[in-house]
């Protein structure tokens, strides 16, 4: 993601299963949207159950936007012959918050390291091509507290600037949690901090 940009790419939903073949080896490819590393292990375990004859389930994932983290797994294939080529395709498509996994069924003929790199890269590429890539906006959440008589003023700002109401408690003392595009944070929060009788609490 470029500096100052608050938009990133990810995939809308899990991709359909794809199949890439090379010398009778079968490479089943998948892409999944994820929000945390904790989601990875259950997905990989499900793929192994789905393909009981699989020899390897290799994968790569990337999470985050400004300082993304990633991990690769060759699952018994020669070092860097599977996970890294998969990660290379994730980076090539400039997507994040994503897991790409390739399940291989050995076909009886060794492909060599070069052949494996090509196969895993190709399967990952096809899986990403078959995915619905979307753009998402990084949002910043904050809460404001105010007395009910201030409601009209608060709602005027919310409507004028199309702010997202994440949650709200409307009583004598009201608390609203709002979400705003990251690049608009300073301007929007200043609108509330300059208003009397409104307390702004930063959340994230």
UniProtKB/TrEMBL annotation:
Signal peptide: none annotated. GO terms for biological process: regulation of translational initiation. InterPro entries: Impact (IPR023582), Impact_N (IPR001498), Impact_N_sf (IPR036956), Ribosomal_Su5_D2-typ_SF (IPR020568). Transmembrane segments: none annotated. Pfam families: Impact_N. It comes from the Bacteria. GO terms for cellular component: cytoplasm. Residues 23-128 form the Impact N-terminal domain. Belongs to the IMPACT family. This is Putative YigZ family protein.
